[in-house]
Structure formats: structure tokens, C-alpha cells
Amino acid sequence: MEEPRTSFQEMPISAFQQALASKAPVPGGGGAAALAGALAASLLTMVGSLTVGKKKYAACEAALREKMAEMEKAAGRLLSLVDADAKAFAPLSQAYSLPSDTKEEQETKDQVLEQCLRDAAAVPLAILEEVTGIAQELHDFCEMGSVLARSDVGCAAALAGAAGKSAALNVYVNTRLMKDRAYAKDLDGRCLALELNCTALSEESAQAVEAFLRAPRRNA
Hints:
The protein has 220 residues and is mainly α. Helices cover 75% and strands 0% of the residues. The protein starts with 12 loop residues before the first helix and ends in a 6-residue tail after the last helix. 39% of the residues are buried.
């Protein structure tokens, strides 16, 4: 199987959706997780854009602009990881087709597979790290951002939570096949810690936003 020649991050949305829905092995869950994370970061940037320049929020404008810049960078990195995830899968798919008729061939195949599994797990772990960083900013955007855009912070929280869980699953699907169980256990531990943190932060913000939106208006 050849590595994907198309940059998925440069595809029109409809083309990416069709590629995702096809029987092609990439893009897949890892790419979808990275895209969801990028959307979460972009929503937070939008919240900032709707806030800066307003006198009511002047006190936090400088801090908010810094956070917006970080979210823009995070979104860019996550979009790059859409392609990185696809490229990491190609060698793994090829490794399963290596000959294994002799002892030497089997040993070579096992070594190649093990390295490919490590490489394939590294990308979704990087996605999870990026998304966890986004989740850590949710509270501040909720507090500093325009109240009129608070629902968008909630949407970002929901997307970040889904992206983090999806990325974690794409780590575990690779570690479970590794022969080096000590390495796999270590990677699983790192992944689980990030996943739990990302989930907790995302759910906390999503619930806070929903509670705010469902509460009766003071002037009602």
C-alpha cells in the first residue's frame, strides 16, 4: 500500500468526508480525532475574536489574545497530524504483508511490525497531547470570553472531549498488538493519564456552559 499522496488537511470538507466514509484505510479514526481537535481550537479562537475590542472585556484582552494565538497554533498542528496519522498507517499496513515463511523472515517481520506499531501509536498520542492542551484552556475562554459566545465554548468542550477519547482509542488499538508489553504498558499509562485529564476538563466546561444556558435569565 502506498502512502497517501493527497494532503487531507487541504481537502474540501465534502471531499474529506467522502474519503472518511470510503473503504480506504485512511483517513480514519486518528485523522477524525485530529480534525475534531482542530475544530475545538478554532471555536475557542472565534470566541476570542468575538470578545477582543469590546470595552466590557478590556481587562482581559491581552491575555485573551495570547490564548487565541496558542489556539491558532494548536489547530495548525492538529491539521498536520491528520496527514501524519495517515502516513504512519501506511508502513504498518505494508508490514503485515511481509513474508514469514522462514524463521529469519518471521523475526524480521516481527521487528518491522513492532516499530510500525510504535510509530502508529505515537501520532494519536501526539493528538491527545494537543487536545488536552486545548481542554486546559476551556475554563479561561469561558470566563474571559463574551457571554454571547459561551455556547461556542461548550461546543469546543464537547469536540475536545470526543477528540481526546478518539485519539486514546487509536493509541490502544496499536499498543494491544505490541510484543514488548513493558513498552506498551508504559504508553498505555501515559495515554490514560492524558485521556482522563482531557475528559474531566472537557466535561467540566461543557456542563458549566449547559448549566448557564439552561438557567432562567435574570430579567425573565
